[in-house]
Amino acid sequence: MSKVVVDMAASLDGYTAGPNQSLEKPFGDDAFTSLTDWMTQAAEENKDELDAITDAGAFVMGRNMFGPGRGAWDRTWRGWWGEDPPYHAPVFVLTHHERPAEKMAGGTTFHFVTGGIDEALRLAREAAGDRNVSVAGGAATVNQFLAAGLVDELRLHVTPVLLGRGERLFTGTARTELTQVSARRTSLVTHLRYEVRRA
Amino acid sequence: MSKVVVDMAASLDGYTAGPNQSLEKPFGDDAFTSLTDWMTQAAEENKDELDAITDAGAFVMGRNMFGPGRGAWDRTWRGWWGEDPPYHAPVFVLTHHERPAEKMAGGTTFHFVTGGIDEALRLAREAAGDRNVSVAGGAATVNQFLAAGLVDELRLHVTPVLLGRGERLFTGTARTELTQVSARRTSLVTHLRYEVRRA
């Protein structure tokens, strides 16, 4: 059965990026290494969780996670992710500005969706078939999905830092009952998994 | 060596109490059982962490954690904690309104401190001697200690719920580097311990 999963690296205080995200600083000010060291410096130790991040049949992400900026698209810019993005599946990017799909190497195609999270999820479910749909971020997008009660499983990768500012998870989310699935500490991160309980 | 430790039960989104705390609802609206079930329903399973909460030579707490209300004291009210509070040590309560100390059974004496967290910590350190000083809460008090760089160890007891509103940890705190110490999941809670890194 296809599930909607969320996979986010976050500081202990729930920030998933610092302020002032830009082309040069996709994670904003002073957050990149704190949030991603476990992925780069301890990839083998965290292999299971890293593999799971891209193990989905389709992805949904906010515009900031595709590229910086607002307003009309600069079509020469094809995203943070290089010519062979790690998704290897359709990715539905939330935006207010239409743009034709961008087919990349390795099976990743970015589709641009102007109809909000409901349309993005409908398209992603169709594309994913029996596989999971992953809400890849950022925080604002995850918060929208949580607030709408659309998430089945929440996977947080909690890094040992308080960032104090930036893009924060769990802002504007409603009360949500969870069931703990697992907690695993490695040298640089603690992986927490929860299922969202349905009434 | 005496340390300043923080021990807080919090929802996954960092709330330590719901809104509208009152005499009848010390944890505010709709938060009590979500935050405390692990203490009452699974006390044996969480015995080590529960014992550690009150294993300190002195405690500091915000006024809300002693009793509800603001303004001048109602001296007939002697706190949430009954006649034999669980602290068995001096407790320094932050307040803007002077009040003589309240000596309770079992070694707990509540002292009321009007000089803010620095004075409370100084008095608590003196009282604790070689033992730890525990900042017992609530969130506003813990946030003040974190923002001032006064915490040595942070122990969070993360319960599987998003509360979405209430008293939130890590509001107004500065960037703080941590070192993971441990993570332990039991049936109803995940215990996370961090040391605060000193430059």
TrEMBL record, chains A, B:
PANTHER family for the chain: BIFUNCTIONAL DEAMINASE-REDUCTASE DOMAIN PROTEIN, DIHYDROFOLATE REDUCTASE FAMILY PROTEIN (AFU_ORTHOLOGUE AFUA_8G06820)
Lineage of the species this protein comes from: Bacteria, Bacillati, Actinomycetota, Actinomycetes, Micromonosporales
Gene3D superfamilies xrefs: Dihydrofolate Reductase, subunit A (3.40.430.10)
A GO BP annotation: riboflavin biosynthetic process
Span of the signal peptide: none
Organism of origin: Virgisporangium aurantiacum
Bacterial bifunctional deaminase-reductase C-terminal domain mapped to chain residues: 3-187
Keywords for the protein's UniProt record, in alphabetical order: DNA-binding
Annotated protein name in UniProt: DNA-binding protein
Gene Ontology molecular function: 5-amino-6-(5-phosphoribosylamino)uracil reductase activity; DNA binding
Pfam families: RibD_C
